[in-house]
Design brief:
- A four-stranded parallel sheet has the order 1-4-6-5, with helices on both faces.
- The chain has one domain: Phosphoglycerate kinase, N-terminal domain (Rossmann fold), CATH 3.40.50.1260.
- It is globular and about 45 Å long.
- Strand 5, helix 3 and strand 6 form a beta-alpha-beta unit.
- Helix content is 34%, strand content 15%.
Length: 145
Amino acid sequence: MALNKKSIDDFNAKGKRVLVRCDFNVPLKNGEITDETRIVAALPTIKKLIADGGKVILCSHLGKVKEGPNEKESLAPVAAALSKKLGKDVKFVADYTVTGPAATEAVAAMKEGDVVLLQNTRFRMEEETKPAKAGTKFAEELAEL
């Protein structure tokens, strides 16, 4: 029985902006990643989109942010690890609002095959909000990118 499910291999990202929700919730100790398993797991998808010539916009949460945005829970170390593993610069948008002007500018400047990683989505309270509330607005902001 065929399931008629599409995979990343059924899609060509040439010239398209592609928002990819990754699981980069990696363990950190003193700002260093102690296990890169989740980053490695995302590489085939990211590499395929780059090879297609897509503009790859990555987002993820990290940790359970309880004290508001902070550098300890920033995705900056993930961007550095991705840059090494991909052999190319991954532009990290450090903006705590995640989808603010810095993200918009970074995305607008992208060329085919570029990769941008947005800041920790948990820095926005709306990330865990039900869609009927403010979560819909955040989802729309991400989609605009």
